Amino acid sequence: MFEQINQKKALLDSKRPLPRYTIKSLREKLLVEWTYHSNAIEGNTLTINETKVVLEGITVGGKTLREHLEVINHREAIAYVEEIVSKEESLSEWQIKNLHRLVLKGINDAYAGVYRDQQVFIPGASHVPPAPYLIQEQMEQLMTWYQSEAKSLHPVERGAMLHAIFVGIHPFIDGNGRTARLLLNLELMKEGFPPVIIKVVNRLEYYDALDKAHISKDYHDFIELVAKEVEDSLNLYLSVTN
Predict the structure, then answer these.
(1) Disulfide check for 71: which of 54, 63, 193, 199 has CB 3.0–4.6 Å away?
(2) Do the beta carbons of residue 85 and residue 190 sit within 8 Å?
(3) Which residues are part of a known binding site for ATP?
(4) Does the keyword ATP-binding belong to this entry (predicted)?
């Protein structure tokens, strides 16, 4: 599954450093698309062009304050991901809570960066997240897995499984999906991959693959879905190097 990805990643690495303004424009393109798709998956109704103008500081008429905040907060969360990558910091529960705090800032401050104290359900999913009293233990188990056996996995597999296991725990009242996609990209970016965009058009396939992973512990479909998106991002970066 990863042979082609490895070849494309090696080719991209051989062409680095990319021109400064090319990097800047790629970053701006991915910032808009990552923010738009991640929010749209969760029901935000801003279009991609409306997302772009909100990122530029313009208010869009007829849209809620929450929808605007989801865009602004996501940009800040991406900046935090980039900071962690640049400092080469190891993933911690504290970082995960910080990421989530940025995602929900001004939307639900009481629960921003705080594990849930209530039972929640995932609409349309067979999987039921754990009871609140189990969250701390399961998050610690996730971090133990990440610091041990996950180290031997391909970065794409590791990132996909980190996302899937995290969102299965569903540790927060709201914002779990956005945080999971930020964690996926944090893991990939640490390894020199460009960010990936889980596209809203693939939302059904994405949810089905996650539910299968949570119910049967078979992560293959979800890893494959992420791998396709990784290849798309690598192709985008390689297209500017010719």
Answers:
(1) 54
(2) yes
(3) 174-181, 206-207
(4) yes
pTM (global) more than 0.90: yes
Give the residue among 191, 213, 161, 199 at the shortest CA–CA distance from 39. Answer: 199
For 159, other C-beta atoms within 10 Å of its C-beta total 26
Q: Is 68 a catalytic residue?
A: no
How do residues 1-59 score in pLDDT, each as one tens digit? 899 999 999 999 999 999 999 999 999 999 999 999 999 999 999 999 999 999 999 99
Q: Under 8 Å CB-to-CB from 225, ≥6 apart: which residues?
A: 160, 198, 202, 205, 206, 209
Domain spans in the chain, listed from the N-terminal domain onward: 17-114+129-239
Q: Which of 127, 170, 214, 220 is catalytic?
A: 170
Annotated binding site: 174-181, 206-207
CATH of domain 17-114+129-239: 1.10.3290.10
